[in-house]
Write a structure and sequence with these properties.
Largest sheet: 6 strands, antiparallel
Number of helices: 9
Strand content: 5-15%
Number of strands: 10
Distance between the termini: 53 Å
CATH architecture of the largest domain: Orthogonal Bundle
CATH topology of the largest domain: Transferase(Phosphotransferase), domain 1
CATH superfamily of the largest domain: Transferase(Phosphotransferase) domain 1
Oligomer: single chain
Order of helices and strands: HEEEHEEEHHHEEEEHHHH
């Protein structure tokens, strides 16, 4: 198997599509993806498909197959997702040129607008229908939402390898306070609230088609609490976020009950994502695509702003913005 993407040539992208029985037009162009390499490939009949090459040494074939099994269950239950394509052997994941690869149907649509409350309601409907199928799903080979990996391990990696020496004392002080707040926020039986979830629900992974929102990219699907697939759609000031949340939950509850008590976990989940995302950028920095895409990373100004962000995350734990005690404020009011 390959160690990186240096051997991924344009001809291999076309070979992948042809191996699934398609006739290609010869046109392909890369899509906005950093963890993996994703291409839109034109077909002779005028259509196109999405070709995906998974990052070497990240997911095993077994883990990717489990992702596809979950997506297949959703698709068969009429949950609006991008369908994985199978070849003549009924395989949706293959090895080609030392890479694990797959094909998906192309979805035509636009990115949802957070201030469009109708779109938020429809997103809630989509996530609720997805979670209805995920409630009795159990991933056996994929990661679960993990506080130690995302928070403790990620921050330790940054402290040991990336935080400038003159900022290490401040970083250690803030991160210890933040990790303590996260631990206090989440219950001892946190794992018992997990369901099969998308894991990375945000605007870049949804397209609004003419038939409504379609969920894309299940690369990070995992066992996680339901609120993990909700909170990243919240943006703006507090009144805006409450309106967005109201619509999301009302749409969600057309399929299944939303666990309102999990709203209190949002500050912890947001903090863990910030730590984990920063560690992800650092771990991928040797990939030439990352310095080009994130030129502001690893500058002194970046780390100073990162410390301010971490301190604000500590302060957020004192806010009751998403407290379940105020669940009436986020219930449906359409």
């Amino acid at each position: 198997m390959q160690k990186d993407f240096s051997q991924l040539q344009p001809d291999l992208v076309l070979d992948l599509v042809e191996s699934y029985g398609y006739q290609v037009s010869g046109q392909s162009y890369p899509l906005n993806s950093y963890e993996n390499r994703v291409f839109q490939v034109g077909l002779e009949d005028g259509g196109s498909v999405i070709a995906k090459f998974y990052r070497p040494e990240h997911w095993s074939k077994q883990q990717i197959a489990e992702e596809h099994s979950f997506a297949d269950r959703l698709y068969k239950a009429d949950v609006q997702i991008a369908e994985n394509i199978v070849n003549d052997n009924a395989d949706s994941v293959i090895e080609l040129g030392g890479y694990l690869c797959s094909l998906q149907k192309k979805i035509i649509g636009r990115v949802p607008e957070l201030d469009d409350l109708d779109s938020m309601f429809q997103l809630g409907q989509l996530i609720g229908s997805m979670h209805l199928q995920g409630k009795d799903w159990l991933f056996m080979h994929r990661r679960s939402f993990n506080i130690v990996r995302m928070g403790c391990t990620g921050s330790a990696y940054l402290a040991e390898n990336w935080i400038p020496k003159k900022l290490q004392g401040r970083y250690t002080s803030i991160i210890m306070e933040l990790l303590s707040a996260i631990a206090d926020c989440l219950p001892d039986d946190f794992d018992s609230h997990f369901i099969g979830a998308h894991g990375d629900c945000h605007l870049s992974n949804v397209l609004m088609s003419r038939d409504g929102p379609v969920m894309l990219d299940f690369d990070d699907c995992m066992m996680a609490p339901a609120v993990q697939d909700i909170w990243m759609f919240l943006a703006g000031d507090q009144p805006q976020q409450k309106r967005q949340l109201s619509e999301l939950i009302e749409g969600y509850e057309e399929s299944t009950e939303f666990p309102h008590y999990q709203l209190e976990w949002i500050p912890a989940m947001r903090a863990l994502r910030v730590i984990n995302y920063t560690a992800w950028l650092a771990r991928r920095w040797s990939d030439p695509a990352f310095p080009l895409a994130f030129p502001w990373f690893d500058t002194e100004d970046y780390w100073l702003q990162h410390l301010k962000q971490l301190q604000q995350l500590v302060n957020d734990f004192n806010s009751e913005q998403f407290s379940s005690k105020g669940s009436g404020e986020v219930s449906g009011n359409r």
